Amino acid sequence: MSALRRSVRVIFCSVAVVVSAICSSAYASTSISELQVELDRAEAGELVKLPPGTYEGTLHIRKPIQVEGDETRIISRRDAVNEEPLLLVETNGAAVRGLQLEGNQAGLVVHGDNNRIQDVSISTGKTAIKLEKSNRNLVQRVRINGRTADLEQRGNGIEVRNSQDNLIEESTLDNLQDGVYLDNSARTFVRTNHISNSRYAVHMMFSNSSEVAGNILEHNVTGAMVMEDSGSQIAGNSITKQAEHVQSQGILLYHVQGAKVVRNTVDGNRIGLYVDSSTGNYVEGNQIMHNFLGLQMKDSTGNEFLANTWAGNVIQAQAADSHENLMKGNYWEDHQGLDLNGDGHSEISYQASPFFLSLTEAVPAYQLFFQTPGLAILQDLFTSGTDNWLRDESPLMSPASRGVREKTSSRGLLIGISLLLLGAGIMPFGRRIRRRVQR
Amino acid sequence: MHVWIIARREMQLGFRNPWSYSFLLLFSVFSLAMLLIQSNNSMGLQGYTHATGMMINLTLYLLPMMTLLLGSFSLTGEKEDGSWHLLSTYSVSTSAYLIGKYLGLTAVLLAIVATGFGLFGVVGVLLGQSVTLTGLLTFLLFSVAVLVLYLGLALVVGAIAQNRWQALTYGVGIWFITVLAWPTLLIAVLNLLPYPAIKPTLGLLTLLNPAELVRVVTVIKLGGGAVFGPEYYQWIDWIHGKWGTVSALVFALLWLNGCVGAASWIWERGRGRG
């Protein structure tokens, strides 16, 4: 009897050990409050390594310490208050590395200067990273994924408000409302990030002298949305495939002064570059290709467009109510130029009719006539008074650099089907001819 | 049964008809010309680009005219040379006759279009052009849709017209209104309407113009629907949705039914008088 009892006790104990082992692999033995105690106890500059595991709740960094995670996950508590973030940094000069934040509350909020956020991955339906009145911080190699399918319900990826001189780089942002949202934050640098499937990849409001460079922005509603801004730079980005939404565009400049838009590849968007109510901007060396509409300009004056390549756009450019813009040395694919003195520039200027833009501004329903065959004739009827048209005085005869040719896949199949079509089409005709010859 | 006999006879006549040969030659030359224009630029035919937009427009300049003339001439020709009078001594109903004619003519026109695009594909590959299979099939489908819908109109023209000259006049008129003058006419007329009525009227009229309808649907199918702006996002959803293709087919059937119905009615009236 006692032997039986002993064996039952052994089985019970071993089951308990296995269960606790399984539990400890999913949830860490230390609780979040113990981690918090450790953070609070650390001296300034000290490195605190967080053990692997999943923790529920909020961590609060109040001292300039270095916090490093090793497969450390912080998730929302069930009774979490929405306003509370998963990680709150309220100090200057702290560093956070290697954490995973997941849940339905804000990810990481920074109030302070000179902090470094690196290698953090965040998955949330709310704003993932927020810098508020915080300067000279670094956000690097961060991966953010919004959880919600509904565009309006999503939060922003990295939100910078009333802050200056921050740097956001090498990060991957997907499925968000705005990938990077800058509000009243001057000199913010957004470099070499990959932002996709969001509403606006980069959204700038009142963020003067900022720089968006070397990023890949694709499949968003809008690539770079620059509003109420002066002196910012959009350079060397690849801005592609913003075409599915009826209000999509690659780059939008709205009420922008003195921006530099240089060396970008703007490919396959609904509108490549949309300039609205903007003055004194400088657009040079961009490849604006395969967009439905290359350039749209409204109410804009004093802008310069130099040495850009406009090719493969269904309509290259249209501009209305825009005067005194300088356009020189661009390559326009649909232009039949004539180079008399051999300097590579055409002596015949290129001009774009404002007719369709004016027409659709008056009645948006007429947009259905976009590129309809009869439109060219109608447009030609309205060619008088071309003084205020968009005009390139010396367009390039050939593009500065050739675009990449599309690769043709399955050539064999293509030629097979073509031959089949040709054969099937010509055969009945051929039979008649043969018979006629035989007679 | 009669339908099939008429269709076979129409094919025999059609593949022998000098008009078909001229159009075969014209469409082939036209396909090669499109290839040459392509070679001036570095663009492929993927999605909605300048190259695809241009192909669509050039096809719309030629194909509807070709279809209208070939279709209507086939009907008026039989009135003129008396073979319809001979046929009407047999027990052939007007609708069977017209449907047979329609099927036979479709075969002839399909052969012309297939030759053109086959040539386009083969020469394109040989010249090393960036022709793609999807691009080629998109244009083939686009052309077939234009052809099928305009051939319905051609039957009506053929039924109304007494001889080839009349058919030519009506055919060119329809082509001019639906292709060349369409935006001009519509903008002129729609501007007279109160503002809220413009969009629905434009939508309705677009449904009645095969050239414009097929063009809009093709652009949307190519992924370029967003270009029509916020006014038309429901159209895009609808065409991309699961009922898009089905409703296009149903519409085509209704259109053909209407055209053949109208043509038979007109034809019957002529038969009574004659």
From TrEMBL, chain B:
Keyword Phosphoprotein tagged: no
Transmembrane annotation, as ranges: 19-37, 58-76, 82-100, 107-127, 139-160, 172-193, 213-233, 245-267
UniProt keyword annotations, A-Z: Membrane, Transmembrane, Transmembrane helix
Organism superkingdom: Bacteria
Stretches of the chain forming a coiled coil according to its record: none
GO molecular function, one term: ABC-type transporter activity
A GO CC annotation given for this chain: plasma membrane
Chaperone in keyword set: no
Protein name: ABC transporter permease
Source organism per UniProt: Tumebacillus flagellatus
